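Inverse folding, one chain.
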């Protein structure tokens, strides 16, 4: 169940209307800062119900995948013009916005199937144009992308091309992490972004699936501190600047590792940490499972939407 670029298009309301989306696509809501993941595979799948209950304004929608070639589809099978487009419109009609996420752990990845950076950038552009996007998230965690130097470089060069075509673009790259920060592959990705000039705006780590327990608030803070230190070293930034380019995506309740749990109290502490360092992104996997008990829920006793409410209160 592990889930696992941020683009801003300088487009007008007329452009939004032309592609069949309301002007809310151009609204001021930041889809990067506080946008819990939402996926259409089960659990609580209504974004507007979550918005009404929590005040959250944005969602990270999972996942855009390959349809078997270099063509983007939701979950690798759903058209960009189908039910997901309707869901995005509903979110925008309610005053919110979205950041589609490319990748995740499962499924066939565009980074692997597209054979060149220009082709991959073209796949990203199809999604950008389909929804008049401000933002996209690249969730690079599957070994086909994350542990493959050729694919890493292809993704980063595609980011560079996409940023050139969309000058107001913000790019988020999400990766796994150790408790001390990015592993060897994560460090390589960050260093290559600098070398290629990919200009990634936000680096976000997934601080879970570490071991079989421990203080998940402390583990999360240590992991993000490690990310900050790597960004500081690579780009020559100050601590403050490096934190402002850092983010995190936790997991609510029981994670994929037996004995490892992120409690509501842990997540509240993590938000305080994020606020104190002005992190650029604070989110979790996923609003679908933000409910009490097992099955499609978090596996812990919690109030419905407890984690989504915590995210909704994050202002950077």
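Residues assigned per position:
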């Amino acid at each position: 169940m592990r889930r696992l670029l941020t683009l801003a298009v300088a487009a007008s309301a007329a452009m939004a209307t032309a592609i069949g989306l309301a002007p809310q696509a151009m609204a001021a809501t930041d889809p990067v800062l506080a946008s819990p993941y939402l996926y259409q595979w089960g659990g609580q799948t209504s974004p507007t119900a979550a918005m009404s209950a929590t005040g959250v304004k944005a969602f990270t929608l999972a996942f855009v995948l390959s349809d078997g070639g270099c063509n983007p589809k939701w979950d690798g099978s759903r058209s960009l013009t189908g039910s997901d487009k309707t869901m995005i419109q509903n979110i925008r009609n309610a005053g919110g916005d979205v950041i589609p996420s490319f990748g995740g752990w499962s499924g066939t990845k565009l980074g692997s199937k597209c054979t060149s950076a220009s082709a991959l950038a073209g796949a990203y552009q199809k999604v950008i144009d389909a929804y008049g996007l401000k933002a996209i998230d690249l969730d690079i965690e599957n070994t086909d992308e994350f542990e493959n130097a050729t694919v890493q470089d292809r993704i980063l060069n595609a980011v560079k091309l996409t940023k050139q075509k969309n000058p107001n673009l913000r790019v988020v790259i999400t990766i796994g992490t150790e408790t001390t920060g990015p592993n060897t592959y994560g460090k390589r990705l960050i260093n290559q972004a600098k070398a290629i000039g990919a200009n990634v705006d936000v680096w976000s780590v997934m601080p879970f699936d570490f071991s079989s327990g421990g203080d998940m608030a402390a583990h999360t803070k240590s992991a993000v501190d490690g990310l900050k230190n790597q960004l500081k070293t690579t780009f020559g930034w100050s601590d403050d600047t490096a934190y402002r380019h850092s983010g995190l995506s936790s997991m609510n309740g029981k994670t994929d590792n037996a004995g490892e749990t992120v409690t509501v109290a842990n997540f509240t502490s993590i938000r305080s940490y994020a606020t104190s360092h002005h992190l650029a992104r604070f989110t979790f996997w996923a609003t679908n499972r933000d409910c009490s008990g097992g099955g499609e829920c978090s596996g812990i006793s919690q109030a419905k939407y407890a984690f989504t409410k915590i995210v909704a209160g994050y202002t950077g």
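Residues 55 and 312 are 6 Å apart (CA to CA). Residues 1-20, 22-27 have pLDDT under 50 and may be disordered.
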